[in-house]
Amino acid sequence: MSTDSAPAAQEPDRLITHAAQPGLAALFLAFARMSLAGFGGVLVFARHAIVDQHRWMTAEEFNETFALCHFLPGPNIVNLSMVFGSRLRGIAGGVAAFTGLLLPPTLIMTVLAVIYARFGDVEVLRRILAGISCAAVGLLIAVVFRMMTPLLKRMDVVVLVLMLGVFTAIGVLRWPLQAVLLVAIPLSIGATCLMRRKVAA
Amino acid sequence: MSSENPIGALISTFGLMSLFAVGGAAAAVPEMHRVAVDVHHWMTDKQFADAYAIAQLSPGPNVLIVTLIGYAVAGIPGALAATLAMCLPTALLAYYVSRLLNRPNQSRWPALIQAALVPLSIGLMAASALILVQSTDRTIAAVLLTAAVALIASVSRVNPLWLLLAGGILGFAGIV
To answer: Which residues of A touch B74 (CB under 8 A)?
Structure first.
């Protein structure tokens, strides 16, 4: 562990909610570390580092920040790095966290891209990648299934129809994303509004 | 490839795409596939599936599949341009919105809109899964492997990396 992030370890008793504000280097290193640990997604590691390890945010603050980033467009965890860093250290902190999250894995990915461009046609590598692809798709199906479970339990017909509609339009008919969302988002917001009103009445 | 500057095409494509990518990187996969394979012919179906596999196997946010697409189009400058175009505009947007919302806000609209987006983003991710299944699972053994991983990951908390490695070993052995 670097000296920048040491205070949290030195005085654990006095830091019930918040640790001392981290420096820019500490932010960069913390996000680089959680990014490099994040095989198959960084969220779990980000929450562990920010809430449990460094105590830079309480669990509630983290949930609120993540909800905001999930609701905005773009890669959630990248948005989170910028919002989180800037809440602690202003825009410079945001840039430090953003760079820490993206720079090391981008370099790794670029090296892999070079290797793939040169050896992608080698038979053994092809077979290994084919096997990994099959497993990776299986993981994606599992995530979709886990996220779908609460919706299926509620048996809300409108929600299920919207979900199936987007799935069919994009997955089966291969319509452009923008066009589909332009129709689906207002429809869904309208439907949610009506349902909330019915529940309230 | 068209005669226009490939770096410019990467930046405009991914910059625009990120602004519509509500629901994260997984939800943007069908659109990436449509643009990279069907519209611009930057990659073949097989190369796209390989890129997805490499992005899953590597550490870091899964959105970095755009780094691989960018490299396929225009080498290292393309890789960096695609990554920044996909990540920076929305991160800045998030920064400004979070500053706006930082003051106490009693509006019910953010929660309502978020609830409304949930079924759409799940539908998008399911579409991603379907498109990838169609390009990777060409044999019965491959379908079985995908189904087995989906089942194991749904019911247990095993580290995803082990499942990816198992897939790699089965591929190496020539089973799938």
So the answer is: none
* Eight-state DSSP code of residue A5: G
Tell me the residue range of the domain where A103 lies: 3-119
What is the number of domains present in chain A? Answer: 2
Whether A73 and B125 lie within 8 Å, measured CB to CB: no
ipTM, interface predicted TM-score of the complex: 0.77
User: How many whole angstroms separate alpha carbon A50 and alpha carbon A44?
Assistant: 10
pLDDT, tens digit (0-9, with 9 covering 90-100), for A89-126 = 999 999 999 999 999 999 999 998 999 888 888 888 88
In a domain, A132, yes or no: no
CA atoms within 13 A of residue A177's CA, in its CB half-sphere: 26
Chain A interface disruption, residue of B95, B121, B165, B169, most A CBs within 10 A = B95
User: What does the pLDDT look like over A58-79, one tens digit per residue?
Assistant: 887 887 777 778 768 888 889 9
Task: Identify from B35, B122, B145 which residue to disrupt to test chain A contact, counting A C-beta atoms within 10 A and taking the largest count.
Answer: B122
Q: Which residue stretches of chain A are H helix? A: 7-10, 24-37, 43-47, 59-71, 76-119, 123-154, 157-167, 177-200
